[in-house]
Amino acid sequence: MARPSVEAERREQILAATREVVAEMGFRAMRVADVAKRSGASTGTVHYYFETKRELMQAAFEWNFHASQARRTPVVEAHEDPRDRLRAFLDSYLPVDEVVVQSWHMWIELWTAALHDTDLRELNENVYGEWRRTVAGIIRDGQDRGYFVTGDPVLLANGLVSMVDGLALQVLLGSRSMTLEQMRRVCEQSVELILTEGS
């Protein structure tokens, strides 16, 4: 049996490969053999870690969330000022590089699959709730310092997060009306709209 560190590394490679394959062809079209080939493992090895395609999918969604969270944590922690923190956090959502684009594809696949899967809806509820809480926490901190307008920080966070989701979807679809730069400007303007006068 492989050592725990080797097993963890192989599992990580399989999940990263799953994200790449899903981003290219979607979850429905993806085969375990596609993931095995991309990760440099055998189909049997993939099944050693994940008995079914559905189990692989759920693990990949969870892994994608934690990987996204790990990328954004230093972004958030780099800024003491909640205004800068919120701008940086929203900017980190922009589909500017291959990894972020792949992550967005995973989110879209999760939402699509969750329409018909109670377990995946619960997974979405849990992991997506973390994003909302992070944004609400930044807004609450800014309100406490007098930088952001008063109001329910959860409602404000939900508005921002939902807006970013919709914008990113349009960018990923190649909309001529919503380019990456237009998305960036809308996000910047949205932060300006919740700033208090003079802040």
TrEMBL record:
GO terms for molecular function: DNA-binding transcription factor activity; transcription cis-regulatory region binding. Residues 31-50 bind DNA. Gene3D superfamilies: Tetracycline Repressor, domain 2 (1.10.357.10). The keyword Repressor applies. Residues 8-68 form the HTH tetR-type domain. InterPro entries: BetI_C (IPR039538), Homeodomain-like_sf (IPR009057), HTH-type_TetR-like_transc_reg (IPR050109), HTH_TetR (IPR001647), Tet_transcr_reg_TetR-rel_C_sf (IPR036271). Keywords: DNA-binding, Repressor, Transcription, Transcription regulation. PANTHER family: HTH-TYPE TRANSCRIPTIONAL REGULATOR BETI, HTH-TYPE TRANSCRIPTIONAL REGULATOR RUTR. This is HTH-type transcriptional regulator BetI. It comes from Nocardioides dokdonensis FR1436.
